[in-house]
Design a protein that fits this description.
Layout: E1 6-7, H1 8-20, H2 26-31, E2 45-46, H3 48-62, H4 78-86, H5 92-104, E3 111-117, E4 120-126, H6 136-153, E5 159-163, H7 175-178, E6 183-184, E7 190-195, H8 207-213, H9 219-223, H10 231-239, H11 249-255, H12 260-269, H13 274-290, H14 297-303, H15 309-320, H16 324-331
Parallel strand pairs: 5-6
Antiparallel strand pairs: 1-2, 3-4, 4-7, 5-7
Helix pairs in contact: 1-3, 4-5, 14-15
Length: 332
């Protein structure tokens, strides 16, 4: 669903490398209709299209796909060249291994490694060479490699576990979407674990589809980290945009061909709940409509299922730290 929004934390983190290198990002943000005041609100969120354009413009500004977080820049076009180097590989394992080898040719690049551990494959990122206090680049690398792998084989790679070498960050609740699986912190390494059967799968993409893919990636992979096949996305699609007609958990479970108990357990494993998913979808729909002037705040409140505008105001302020009116004024 296009209305999924991005937490303001990721905007602050994305521009921090450029700021540390002496760049003034205020004009860049305003040019993307991202008001700097929005970043002062920890719970504020922006549209995914804005975030994708921000990442692309930061790359252009810095000529660095590492966004200023590496010891040396990764010049624009490096990711695209890596994709061209792997697109003719026979299996996913060969493609990921060749991609990791490609980046190992660059001095001081963050190390990528693919390994087998019993029935599972492990994608590890070494961040020891990064100056990345907010972990933005290492999060981005994990997301990009996971989504790239899923795209190459034409199906979502289900994550079994994610581990991180650092303590649980303040923005950890956002990891539910980035890494929808059990997550462990203060571990020896930063890694994603998935079943090894995926590694033997053939690549379904070619140079023609790669050309289209590279028009928007990897920025689009970051802006829309969920490929649409996760349980979170399936439930959002089943709920739809008409909040007054949302099915209950039992009906959703039935449509997903599982029991309500199993659905609750899967959601719990991803660190979320059915109520939280509904609240997040309602929040994202509210932000989506407030970013457009087509309908009034009162009508938005009605469409979201609030009995009165004051209830919508309270809920929106709880979600974002701003009232709907204040949010709309910052957007325009």
């Amino acid at each position: 669903m296009s209305e999924r929004t991005i937490a303001s934390h990721f905007v602050r983190a994305a521009i921090s490398g450029a700021q540390r290198n002496g760049y003034d990002c205020l004009a860049l943000l305003r040019g993307l209709n991202i008001q700097p005041a929005l970043l002062d609100e920890p719970k504020a969120r922006i549209a995914p299209e804005q975030f994708a354009r921000l990442i692309q413009q930061l790359w252009e500004l810095l000529d660095d796909e590492y966004l200023g977080f590496g010891k040396y820049p990764s010049k624009r076009g490096t990711f695209a060249m890596m994709c061209h180097a792997i697109i003719h590989c026979r299996t996913l394992e060969k493609a990921l291994s060749r991609g990791a080898l490609f980046y190992s040719l660059f001095p001081e690049a963050p190390g990528i490694q693919i390994s087998h551990e019993g029935d599972f494959a492990c994608l590890t990122v070494d961040d020891s060479r990064l100056d990345d206090p907010e972990h933005f680049l290492v999060e981005s690398l994990l997301v990009i490699w996971h989504r790239l792998g899923s795209w190459l084989i034409g199906q979502h790679i289900r994550l079994e576990q994610a581990t991180f070498s650092y303590a649980k960050p303040e923005h950890e609740p956002q990891y539910k979407l980035l890494f929808p699986c059990p997550r462990h912190f203060n571990e020896p390494r930063i890694s994603l674990h998935f079943h090894k059967r995926y590694l033997a799968m053939p690549l379904l993409q070619d140079e023609r589809t790669l050309k289209h893919f590279l028009q928007h990636s990897p920025a689009d992979l970051l802006a829309r980290p969920d490929s649409g096949h996760s349980l979170n996305s399936q439930i959002r699609r089943l709920l739809g945009r008409d909040c007054s007609a949302w099915p209950d958990l039992e009906k959703v479970a039935q449509k997903l061909h599982m029991s309500a108990q199993t659905l609750r357990r899967h959601l719990r494993e991803e660190g979320t709940s059915f109520q939280e998913l509904k609240d997040n979808l309602r929040r994202d729909l509210a932000i989506y409509h407030l970013g457009r002037n087509e309908i009034s705040i009162q009508l938005i409140a009605e469409q979201l299922g609030f009995s009165e505008p004051s209830a919508f105001h309270r809920a929106f302020k709880k979600w974002t730290g701003l009232t709907p009116g204040a949010y709309r004024s910052l957007e325009h």
